[in-house]
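re: ur question from yesterday

yeah so i grabbed the chain u mentioned. its 264 aa long if i counted rite. heres the sequnce exactly as i have it in my notes:
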Amino acid sequence: MKKTNYRKIDQTIRVAIVEDHTVVRQGLVLLLKREPQVVVSFHAENGFDFFQKLEGRLIDIVLLDLDMPVMNGIETLRVLRRDFPDIQVIMLSMHQDPLIVAELIKEGAKSFLKKNCSFDELMDALFEVKFRGKHTNELVENALFTSYSSPAIYQDSLIRFNLNARELVILKMICDGKTSDFIANKLNLSKKSIDGIRSELLKKCGAKNPTELLRKSILNGLYQARTDDQILAEEKLDELNKIERKKTRLKEINHENNYKNEVD
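ran it thru and got these structure tokens back, copy pasting raw so excuse formatting
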């Protein structure tokens, strides 16, 4: 089946960018300026900043980071779906856990992109969400398949304990034995925020201490124990992905600077 070329539709897409890393945010703005049908209405560094700037402005799509201080992506997504249902959301994140991706799609996100995705995929996502209502890629398809095919005990536990995407990430790290300092550094949050989420997880799961939280997580299908080698391999892969993202971003910024100098 031939894919529809939505870029032929003569209509402007108004975009807002919500990303706490200044370099990434500015890089996205520069990239999107290359597309004549896309207008960046404004950009913000977190959900709270976004809603402060949103008042009185019209936008079609939000490119929304998942991990941000003050007000994160999942909180922002929920407020948007409740109070601004006409604004569509495309999530951006370094996370590739299919269960997290599936959770965000179920919360109302219309697509999920890795931060190191290509410019063409970013454009495809914007045009498809605007004119088709959603954008699917291999990551989203695999996530939804994994979610629908995962054991019923896992699905029941998510509902019973009312866990969101961020809490699932942190729960996994806690069960892996990671400290609050490690998790805070990994997710770009404060140690105080992680400690608060730890306490909330204990309360939600009805656990008195971390050991009981681990036991209940395993019993309820929320965590599967892995070997030290498996955890180490995951961490190495994360580091490699982080290095590749930095290289890609630097190339994009250099390309945009060269392009800007040529135009000027």
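noticed a couple things. The chain has twelve helices and five strands. also The CA atoms of residues 82 and 234 lie 36 Å apart.
anyway ttyl
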